[in-house]
Design a protein that fits this description.
- One of its GO terms (cellular component) is nucleolus.
- It comes from Rhodinocichla rosea.
- One of its GO terms (molecular function) is ligase activity.
- This is RN213 ligase.
- One of its GO terms (biological process) is sprouting angiogenesis.
- The protein is elongated.
- It has four helices and no strands.
- The chain has one domain.
- The chain is mainly alpha-helical.
- The two termini are 19 Å apart.
- The longest helix is centred in the last third of the chain and has 20 residues.
């Protein structure tokens, strides 16, 4: 949710890191963003869960990768 919210606001995500236990927005806003970005017109709860699970793994791996660390790669992959 933290990434999707910033993405919708057009903010730079390259230097953003997930903030564990940080509460942002309402549950309704969270579900609305998931519905908007999941890519399925009328998803089931299982499909939303799979979307958020997959997105979470991808973002976690991205944060852990040195190749996605702006302090390591500099501006060579800006926006990647």
């Amino acid at each position: 949710f933290q990434y999707l919210k910033r993405f919708d606001q057009g903010r730079d995500l390259d230097r953003f890191r997930y903030k564990a236990l940080s509460v942002e927005g309402s549950p309704a806003e969270c579900v609305q963003l998931f519905l908007l970005h999941c890519g399925i017109v009328d998803p089931s709860w299982a499909e939303l869960r799979n979307f958020t699970w997959f997105l979470n793994i991808q973002l976690r791996d991205c944060e852990a990768s040195v190749f996605c660390d702006p302090s390591f790669v500099g501006d060579t992959l800006n926006g990647f």
